[in-house]
Recover the amino acids of this structure.
């Protein structure tokens, strides 16, 4: 499987947002919806800073509004 | 290796932009720089529509200006 881990970079530090990310979709309101292979879903108000697929990393950096909601969905 | 293929969606059709993409970075001027594991680099003036990492797919959709430059770089 080729999922990646999503990190939020804030003040130069990386914080893990979600592991095993499969789907990344931009939202009309800004930010991104991340969904992992277990069905967990995170809305992150951030912009993509860099993706390193071979290293399985997606790096986000903060936008002005930093409200990240985590929604756990049961796997199907 | 967990690289992905980048596609541009235009008029409902997918066109392959670059295979074996490793690095994706947004550009200040808009659009994205894609670099694959062979060192080939593409600048794409498009926005991310969806990423499906398990399926190894990154889908871009067009912005107003559709100028995509391909720069081949020797692998290092």
């Amino acid at each position: 499987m080729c999922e990646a881990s999503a990190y939020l970079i804030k003040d130069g530090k990386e914080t893990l947002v979600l592991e095993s990310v499969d789907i990344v979709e931009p939202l009309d309101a800004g930010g991104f919806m991340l969904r992992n292979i277990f069905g967990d879903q995170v809305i992150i108000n951030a912009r993509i800073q860099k993706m390193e697929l071979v290293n399985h990393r997606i790096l986000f950096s903060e936008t002005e509004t930093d409200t990240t909601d985590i929604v756990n969905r049961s796997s199907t």
Q: What stands out?
A: Chain B touches chain A at residues 1-4, 21-26, 37, 47-54, 56 (CB under 8 Å). Residues 7 and 17 of chain B are 5 Å apart (CA to CA). Chain B has one domain: 4-75. Chain B has a mean pLDDT of 88.
